[in-house]
Structure formats: C-alpha cells, structure tokens
C-alpha cells in the first residue's frame, strides 16, 4: 500500500497524524504529509482510517 497527501486539498485539520502518527505528520506549512510513501502492512488499517476520516478527502491510498 502507498499513500500520499494532496497539499492543495489538505486544510490542516490534524486528524491524520492523530490517527496514524507513524505515517502522517504536519509540515511547517500546516499541511499534512506522508513521512514514508510506502505503508507497512501493520499500518494499513491506520492509513485507511485516516483516509476515510479526512474531511476533505486529501489522502490518497493505492
Ligand atoms: Fe489534512 Fe486531511 Fe490530514 S485535512 S491534516 S490530510 S486528515
């Protein structure tokens, strides 16, 4: 599984790093980013939960 955050869409709500701190982090610009684009199997549920919970659908998963 791979993930990334679209910085144009992210409104900086902070949900994704609170759900999945091992994957997402807030940048200095106030937008979230994926620390590692490759999500390990043990983190997949957290990544999916963050993507589902993002209020503006800024998180892509493939
Ligand atoms: Fe941004 Fe969505 Fe995360 S708005 S901070 S990508 S939950």
Please name the defining characteristics of this protein.
62 residues, alpha+beta, Alpha-Beta Plaits, two-stranded antiparallel sheet, globular, binds FE3-S4 cluster
Mean pLDDT: 97
Main β-sheet description: 2 strands, antiparallel
- The radius of gyration over CA amounts to 10 Å
- Unreliable sequence segments: none
Strand residue percentage? 15-25%
Order of helices and strands: EHEEHE
How helical, in percent, are the residues? 10-25%
Q: Which class of secondary structure composition applies to the elements?
A: alpha+beta
Classified by CATH, the class is Alpha Beta
**Helical stretch count?**
2
Which outline best applies? globular
CATH architectural category: 2-Layer Sandwich
Ligand kinds: FE3-S4 cluster
Strand order of the largest sheet: 1-4
* Overall structural domain count: 1
Q: Give the N-to-C terminal Cα separation.
A: 6 Å
Number of strands: 4
Find the CATH topology: Alpha-Beta Plaits
Organism: Oxobacter pfennigii
Function: Ferredoxins are iron-sulfur proteins that transfer electrons in a wide variety of metabolic reactions.
Domain 4Fe-4S ferredoxin-type: 1-29
Protein name: Ferredoxin
């Amino acid at each position: 599984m791979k993930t990334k955050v679209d910085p144009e869409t992210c409104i900086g709500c902070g949900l994704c790093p609170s759900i999945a701190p091992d994957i997402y982090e807030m940048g200095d610009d106030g937008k979230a980013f994926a620390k590692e684009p490759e999500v390990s199997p043990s983190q997949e549920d957290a990544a999916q939960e963050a993507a589902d919970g993002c209020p503006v659908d800024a998180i892509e998963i493939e």
